[in-house]
Amino acid sequence: MAAGMLPARAAPGAPAHRPPDALQPVARGATASTPAPQPPGPAQAPAPSQPTEIPPSRARIRFRIVGCHSNGSGAYREGPRRREVAIGFDDGPAVLTPSFVGMLERNHARATFFLIGQQVTAAYRETLLRELRDGDALGDHSFTHPDLVRSGGASGQLSRTLRAIRALTGYTPCVFRPPYGSYDESVVATARSLGLATVLWNVDPTDWALPGTAAIEQRVLAQVRPGSIIVSHDGGGPRGETLAAYPAIFAALRGRGYHVVTIPELLGFRPVFRPCIRLCEGLGVPRAQVPRDALIERAP
Asked: Which of 60, 135, 156, 234 is 20 to 30 A removed from 150 (C-alpha atoms)?
């Protein structure tokens, strides 16, 4: 069983022109090797050579991220014991999500955004594409945020959210975080059948309770260890405290020698890229910039 993976349990993507002489008919009585007589006329300048249309070259083809490939049959609370940590921001997209993205950009950090499907609307399309351009990951957080153990219907909740994210961004998540951390074997198996790994956490500053910026900082830094997965929130309420806490958290983590990565990166899940020429949505990169471990899909 992979590091950090727990068994499930309940919890509260014109032909080249021929040269002009080849178009002239052979005159009656002439052979193919005898040029047909031409009517007298002024001397003609040689016809300019005709350009040949070149098919799209490899230099024009770019690659855009379209998802990731996860594995494992249990639920993850942490990753391998390397000096890496990953943060999952839950309950967006929401009003402050663009501010969280800007904060991550300024701090040269990446995160995983677990999205509530019914909130994945056209109003947030550019924000979600910006996250993908920055190297952030998107995750499934159900469609309406129910307790999936008590309510059931996990398959519909997860698949509707996957469809919403894919339709808006072209990206298919490979990680899922159950609302309230409530899951059982059935929920984990349903997620796995949809290509989703169930991801929990082992660092919780309870920022949802609005304990204050200093408390959020202190709680994260007190609990973090190599391979930690941190849970925080960019939606579900006023999140200014969380937003204000993370620059100091990032600085402290780096001071301790940690790298901040996405949850798929922490868990060793492979990104999936697809060739694109026109419909790259600003996400296309040259082949040399595609990660070495990436899976390359054929363009549809």
From this structure: 234
